[in-house]
């Protein structure tokens, strides 16, 4: 229960503070229309593209990008340090992270170890902190992912990336500190071999895994956090104790995007590999019926829920709750998204109407960093930075007395 109840606890604190501020919190709004192409107050701006050359040795791949983004990466790593030091003021924890963590975790398989070492050397940020920044996304990523199929069998995939809960609230402009600091770090990546695209991803500079990406013509993949009974904590402890047969979830997604060559192969690996933390994989293919939500615990797949035109199941939606359970009553992004998809209808589904769904509160919320839209068969991949001006859940106007304990940074 630890993972799930921790999420509920955090959301409850946010909700209580919001509810205290306003008697009737504006959790929801009518389904948005005509928000695409993005403009107005919920659109922060475009996301820059960078090429990652897989023909280079892993240590060198991130050099150009990280040189440019080093200042922004230092800002966020310092925020995370401030949070840790606020809880344990002696500075002991960061000392362990800097001095012991790389040794405790040992070598990461594949290119990840060398890539993180390269990033550490370019920025001068200790390797332990770069590793922590990478592990961070294994927890506390709260997202919405959608795959749709239109009447002609054409698939589309969209997602909101929500991140930054509980790491400090900025009372000056009602934003989450880390959510805001992630916006300048958000990048589109074109991973190439032989000067040809292998896959594309939207990510945060300094993170070497993949949570959002597609392989043009073949498949698309997003990862949502799953807070469950045997959470990722156990996996990390096992890893530290030397049992290293499981994969980090952000790393397995990247490996699948980099090296799988079909929807079926990707699905097979994502359902069968041992994982360090529970997760939802939302995987889309290139033809009718190829779209599913894979609900994973660490050892096995619990459920694979697929598109099914015979049963009129023309979309799948995943937030951060098991399909067979009710979402936490204060965080019902799932029914909001489904209601708006129902409203849109299969006849009118398109990248622009999916953007409308992902722009409707509370699917769009204070934690939303970016929205990604993917069309695998047309090779379209678009990411937009988002804002959620007040009134907006997560939370709208937090009174100072409640905000102060959360206001770690500013
Ligand atoms: C809120 O303030 C922070 C810190 O000054 C800034 O970085 C961020 O861009 C602001 N966000 C919005 C939505 O105004
Ligand atoms: C990739 O393109 C660059 C410039 O266009 C060229 O110099 C380089 O040789 C190419 N590399 C490969 C592996 O084809
Ligand atoms: C993909 O496969 C190649 C060749 O086996 C391997 O070197 C590389 O590390 C793999 N990539 C990832 C991200 O696992
Ligand atoms: C769809 O994916 C399959 C592999 O799963 C591939 O063989 C096929 O060429 C792809 N179709 C198109 C139109 O790209
Ligand atoms: C959406 O439509 C489906 C199929 O008609 C229905 O089962 C479901 O309850 C609807 N969901 C919402 C949230 O309106």
From TrEMBL:
Residue positions of the active site? 143
InterPro entries found in the cross-reference section = Acid_ceramidase-like, Acid_ceramidase_N, CBAH/NAAA_C
Domain Acid ceramidase N-terminal, residue spans: 45-107
- Reaction(s) this enzyme catalyzes, per UniProt: an N-acylsphing-4-enine + H2O = sphing-4-enine + a fatty acid
The record's Gene3D superfamilies line, in alphabetical order, gives: Penicillin V Acylase, Chain A
Where in the cell is the protein located? Lysosome; Secreted
Per UniProt, what is one GO molecular function of this protein?
fatty acid amide hydrolase activity
Ranges of residues in domain Choloylglycine hydrolase/NAAA C-terminal: 143-334, 337-384
UniProt entry tagged with the keyword Secreted: yes
Q: Which GO terms describe its biological process?
A: cellular response to tumor necrosis factor; ceramide biosynthetic process; ceramide catabolic process; fatty acid metabolic process; keratinocyte differentiation; regulation of programmed necrotic cell death; regulation of steroid biosynthetic process; sphingosine biosynthetic process
GO cellular component: a single term: nucleus
Share what the entry says about its subunit structure, partners included: Heterodimer.
Q: Which family does it belong to?
A: Belongs to the acid ceramidase family.
Protein name listed in UniProt = Acid ceramidase
């Amino acid at each position: 229960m630890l993972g799930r109840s921790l999420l509920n606890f955090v959301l409850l604190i946010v909700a209580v503070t919001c509810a205290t501020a306003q008697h009737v919190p504006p959790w929801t709004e009518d389904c948005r229309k005509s928000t695409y192409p993005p403009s107005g107050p919920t659109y922060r701006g475009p996301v820059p593209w960078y090429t990652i050359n897989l023909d280079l040795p892993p240590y060198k791949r991130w050099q150009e990008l990280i040189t440019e983004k080093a200042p922004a990466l230092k800002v966020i790593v310092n925020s995370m340090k401030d949070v840790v030091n606020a809880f344990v003021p002696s500075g002991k924890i960061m000392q362990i992270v800097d001095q012991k963590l790389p040794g405790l975790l040992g070598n990461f398989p594949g290119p990840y170890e060398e890539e993180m070492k390269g990033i550490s050397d370019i920025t001068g940020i200790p390797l332990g902190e770069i590793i922590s920044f990478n592990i961070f996304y294994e927890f506390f990523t709260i997202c919405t992912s959608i795959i749709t199929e239109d009447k002609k069998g054409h698939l589309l995939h969209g997602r909101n990336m929500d991140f930054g809960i509980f790491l400090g609230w900025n009372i000056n402009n009602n934003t989450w500190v880390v959510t805001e600091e992630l916006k300048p770090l958000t990048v589109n990546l074109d991973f190439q071999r032989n000067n040809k695209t292998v896959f594309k991803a939207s990510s945060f500079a300094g993170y070497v895994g993949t949570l959002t990406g597609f392989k043009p013509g073949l498949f698309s993949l997003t990862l949502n956090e799953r807070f469950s009974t045997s959470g990722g904590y156990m996996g990390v402890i096992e890893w530290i104790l030397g049992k290293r047969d499981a994969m980090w979830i952000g790393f397995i997604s990247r490996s699948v995007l980099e090296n799988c060559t079909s929807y079926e192969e990707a699905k097979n690996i994502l359902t069968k590999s041992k994982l360090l933390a529970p997760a939802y994989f939302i995987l889309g293919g290139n033809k009718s019926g190829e779209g599913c939500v894979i609900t994973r615990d660490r050892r096995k797949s619990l459920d694979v829920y697929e598109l099914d035109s015979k049963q009129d199941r023309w979309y799948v939606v995943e937030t951060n709750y098991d399909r067979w359970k009710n979402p936490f009553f204060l965080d019902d992004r799932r029914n909001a998204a489904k209601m708006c998809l129902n409203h849109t209808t299969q006849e009118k589904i398109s990248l622009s109407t999916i953007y409308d769904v992902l722009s409707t509160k509370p699917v769009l919320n204070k934690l939303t960093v970016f929205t990604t839209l993917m069309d695998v068969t047309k090779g379209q991949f678009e990411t937009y930075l988002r804002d959620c001006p007040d009134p907006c859940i997560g939370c709208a106007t937090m009174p100072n007395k409640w905000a102060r304990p959360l206001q770690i940074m500013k």
